[in-house]
Structures are given as C-alpha cells and as structure tokens.
C-alpha cells in the first residue's frame, strides 16, 4: 500500500514540469530532499481537513475567504516585527469584513512558505551580463551577481526553517491573546492619527467594543472572541520541495503536503497534463488553481475532473486573476459552466496579478482603483448569476511601503521610489489594504 502511494506521488517526475530551477547537481538536490523528508511537519493533516470544512462553507455561500500576504517572502523578513505587522493587517481586514459585512471570514495567510516565484524568462541580462533570474529566496538571491544568483538547493532547507519560524510566530500571535477581539484598538494605535483608513477602522473598533461590552453584560464571552483560526498557504511551485514535504497521515493512511494547509497551482503551471496538476491531484490538502483571462470553461471543467473527481466540498478553489478590464467578460462563462456541473467550487478573486504595469520610473506598480474595480466586477458577475463571491486573494504588507498608487492616503507615481521594498511584485500597504477591506464589505452586503 505504502509503495503504491509513493509511486503515485512520484508520477509527476515523468511529466513536463514548468518553472523549475535548473540545478547544477541533481545529487545535491536529492540529498537536500532526503533531509527535508526527515523534518517535522509544518502543519498537520487534521488542520488541513478543518480548512477543507471551512472552504466547503465558502462554496455553499456561508463564509468568505481573506487570503493575503507577501508577493514573495524573504528570509530576512522571517522576523517577529514583520510577521506581526502582516498578521495585524490581515486581522484588521478580517474584522472589517466580519463586522461590516456580517460574514464569517476564513483567514489564510500567503505566508510561511511563499519563497518561490515563477518567472517569464529563465535568465536576466544587465549591461551585457546574463545570470539566472531571481526565482525567490528558496532558489537564489536577489543581488545581481554570480554567487547570489546561483540556483542553490540548500536554500530549500532554509525556506523550510524560515517557514517554521513564521508559522510558529503566527500560531503564538493568533492563539496567545494578540488576536483577542478586545485588542481591536491596540492593532491600530500606530497609524490611526495619520491614516484615513485607520480613522475609519477606529470608528468601527469602537462599535465592536460596545457590542462586546453588551454581550459580556449578557453573560456571553465565546472562545471564538479570544483567538482565531489561521491557515498558511503558498504556491506549490517547487515540486522537489513539495514532494519532500509530503507525508502519509498515520490515521487515514492518505498523503498530505505538510508544508502548508492550502496550496495552489499558478496560471503558468496549470497544464492538465503537467507535473503540478498531477502532483496536487494526489495530495489531500485543500487546493486552488489560478485562472487567467485566457481560461476557457472547458479548461475549468477539465481541472475540476482531474483535481476533484469525487466532488468533495472544500477540496477545490478557483482563484480568478483576470484584470479589471476583462473580468466582466471572461468570468461569466466559467462560472455558468462550473455551476451547471453541480460540482462544489469556492470562487476567489485575485485582483492583483492582472493589473500590473510599469511606471515611467521603471517601477512595477498597480493602481488601487484597478484592484477595486476588478473586485467590483467579480461581485457584479456573481450577483448577476446568483452565485457566491467567495473571497479575495491579495498581495499586501503590514509596512508603509510605496509600491501601489492610490488609496485614501494617496500615493502617486512620484512617490514610488520612497519605500519600494518588494522582492518581486508591488504590494498594497496597510492603509490601502484597509481601504480595500471596507469596499469589499460594502460590496458583500449589496450582494446578499
């Protein structure tokens, strides 16, 4: 039995595997994979099953997903302050959505494993020098020199350890009192005075305080007020890493990728006959697939048949990344066909990746207005079809970066250079993230 499962889990090795680094020495990769396979799990099968149950509620229209975090995590960012700031932003957004939209929010961090990124070209050339492209800290370094840009498999081990540190901090913050709803004011003290979004949040926090005081006076103080369920996620891009982190659960005898609770397949690696789709079809985690504007309804149905043939609720999430100008035309045919099939699918909007452009300064950026417009289009389509807009998937940071333009505390193109710190794509800062949360809450109320 175990041998059969192992063979199935390695079937991807005989299939086309896109976006994999060219490692110098296969034996070095194999040695790292063997060491990873001996490491403790980062998450547990039961936690993955719990998330699957939550996502089943999303597919039924009973909950909403808030998934977010860094475009590409860095090893240097795996520290207490950076993790706390990201988590604080996610919690604030979740509070806005839960209270203002009256909907249970499933909180998934794009954290504790998002150390690799697909690239449009394998190499990068500067001033006549050609080196491997930066593929994320799990593969190579950001600095443009031969030593830094070497694809080094030992970085996979460092990615594991940084993921463990990040996840440990997240567990401590979410279970150790920091996520208590009575802390809603404390999460905001550092930027409420100078931020329009912060001031709006503070007003909502006051309403929550009054509601909690009323409930306490009535003798109600549920456990859910004092901690939160928090789940980790990343793109399952580096297959050697994901395979090495897959374990057979001793209770069920089924394989789980214990590198994260939720894993997704990117738009560039969702080929039906490809290695990524095959591998993720064989693990029992809840999984997602990114769908761009070129996705056909038949593509979506074929992915469902391959990844969730038993129509298991909560197993499969489609994350649409269409672009503000395309979502209203590209999304309806997909939802209609999927809905007609009767298969349970959670639909989430990624309004970031279809709206990237290059400013005159050379910085990649996004307009918050475009992000908001794509989310609005996502809700409009679902409202017109009578289906459930299940969540949002965004790239943000808890820091006051200047990477996306717009927002209540407006950033303009000339500001981009001030704090442009991303390792890859531009992220919303904390104020912009809260602006988005308030708008999504309003859209959700209207959609009900």
Radius of gyration: 21 Å
CATH C-level? Alpha Beta
Main beta sheet: 8 strands, parallel
Number of domains: 1
Class from secondary-structure proportions:
alpha/beta
CATH A-level architecture:
Alpha-Beta Barrel
How many strands?
14
What separation lies between the terminal Cα atoms?
48 Å
Enter the CATH topology name. TIM Barrel
Per DSSP, what share of the residues sits in E-state strands of 2 or more residues? Answer: 5-15%
Spatial sequence of strands, sheet with the most strands: 11-10-9-8-5-2-1-14
Helix content: 25-40%
**What is the 3D shape?**
globular
* Average pLDDT for all residues: 93
Find the CATH superfamily: Aldolase class I
Spans of at least 5 consecutive residues whose pLDDT stays below 50 are none
Number of helical regions? 12
Give the ordered list of helices and strands: HHHEHEEEHHEHEEEHEHEHEEEHEH
Protein name: Phospho-2-dehydro-3-deoxyheptonate aldolase
InterPro entries: Aldolase_TIM (IPR013785), DAHP_synth_2 (IPR002480)
Enzyme class: transferase
Keywords: Amino-acid biosynthesis, Aromatic amino acid biosynthesis, Cadmium, Cobalt, Manganese, Transferase
Question: What would your notes on this structure say?
Answer:
With 448 residues, the protein is an alpha/beta fold. The chain has one domain (2-179, 227-447): Alpha-Beta Barrel (TIM Barrel). The chain has twelve helices and 14 strands. The chain has helices spanning 2-9, 26-37, 45-59, 80-101, 154-175, 196-217, 239-244, 275-282, 297-307, 327-341, 368-385, 430-447; strands at residues 64-69, 105-110, 123-126, 129-132, 230-235, 246-248, 255-257, 262-265, 287-291, 316-320, 346-349, 356-358, 364-366, 391-395. It has an eight-stranded parallel β-sheet, with helices on both faces. It has a two-stranded antiparallel ribbon with strand order 3-4. Strands 6-7 form a two-stranded antiparallel sheet. A hairpin with a 2-residue loop joins β3 and β4 (129-132). α2 (26-37) runs parallel beside α5, α4 packs across α5 and α11 (368-385) packs parallel to α12. The longest helix has 22 residues, at 80-101. The model has no long low-confidence stretch (mean pLDDT 93).
